């Protein structure tokens, strides 16, 4: 494996990971030239754009490096290498899991992370659903934050900052109150429903408690995870899909 450097524009230097292949291009004057093409790890810029922003995954060492770069549009293998490089530079404990389909996932607890048993159990459920879970050290989360974790999809390694919440309410009103307290703090929340609340009360409580800043909710209901955004919560998606 090699790193090749590609210049897309004077301001955008791009790094990609992959194998180099040589092909031949026929020129208009009858001559030919060899062209090296990188087939893996590169997403070519759209026509008319200045190109995708890339980063060197082997330079990712701190939590700030990781979170700021993983939101860029890069190939999954670059994100994966960046995450692995971060872990290699930070003391952590690894817990291994498997999804129903046999895909391997991990929970990484960085030295200095703080969490309770309930939060870890929710993280385990997310890992078994196909997400890698990272518990950062407390000092990297900022003042007043503790329930935050970072999710990395096992296939795409797309990063999400998520707050973990267990919901115990049995009625729509009690659930609404719990949800309102959570949606005021985070834009993406993972709710683990740990009561026997009825489906219609759950939907009612979720709609009434949905906050202005909430972008997405990951909802674990009766052992199944559902991804709910603002559009889904206010149309009939929940009625049709919650089991």
Low-confidence stretches: 1-51
Our count of helices gives: 7
Helical amount: 25-40%
| Number of β-strand runs | 12
| Class computed from helices, strands and strand pairing | alpha/beta
Mean pLDDT: 80
CA(first)-CA(last) distance: 46 Å
Tell me the series of helices and strands, N- to C-terminal. Answer: EEEEHHEEHEEEHEHEEHH
What characteristic shape results from the CA principal axes?
Answer: globular
State Rg: 22 Å
Strand proportion: 25-35%
Report on the biggest sheet. 8 strands, mixed
Strand order of the largest sheet: 5-6-7-8-9-10-11-12
List the helices and strands and how they pair.
Elements: E1 2-9, E2 12-18, E3 20-26, E4 32-38, H1 63-69, H2 76-88, E5 92-98, E6 104-110, H3 117-128, E7 131-135, E8 148-153, E9 159-167, H4 172-183, E10 188-193, H5 199-209, E11 216-221, E12 224-229, H6 230-234, H7 237-241
Parallel strand pairs: 6-7, 9-10, 10-11
Antiparallel strand pairs: 1-2, 3-4, 5-6, 7-8, 8-9, 11-12
Helix pairs in contact: 4-5
Briefly say what this structure is:
The chain has 243 residues and is α/β, with parallel strands linked by helices. The protein has seven helices and twelve strands. Among the domains are: 90 residues, no CATH class; 78 residues, Trna Endonuclease, Chain: A, domain 1.
